[in-house]
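How it folds:
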Amino acid sequence: GAENFIVFPYDYSVSSAEDLTAALKNKVASIKFAKDVTVSNDWHFQNAGAQISHVVTINGMGHTLKFTGAVYNPNNNNVLRFEVAAANSVVKNLTFDLSEATSTKIRAISCASAITVDNCGFIGGANGRRGIIFGEGANNFDFEVKITNCEFTNWSRGITDNENAKDIKSVV
């Protein structure tokens, strides 16, 4: 009875932009980068599956995710957007390089729930607005955002709240 099922291993290996999109769209729980990945086509986070509504661990394994096309959405130009249902997701050991992305007001990560971001690099550029924006789209602001061992370069703001001065439980 296993016909027509697609089975993803627990640690889904990403070697291309297509691999990353497939992993995100199929709600893989553990994504590991096998090499640096460049997204040269336009990245619409909703179409790419990067409006994340499941708990996921993304481990860059020391690699870089680089964007050279437009990063866009009609409202928020996010690379990854973690929704409330993605509470307690983890992003670690990954460098986001948006220095050549062509959109304006770009954000690397936005989250509406608890998230841990560890040992990540965030490289912005002329169009980099926020490295990490937390609380965006959240109804309940009683959650914890953990950002450790991260470096932010060329952003108007490296880390920011949702710009509505909501009280988040804590940012470590």
About this structure: The two ends are 47 Å apart (CA to CA). The chain has one helix and 17 strands.
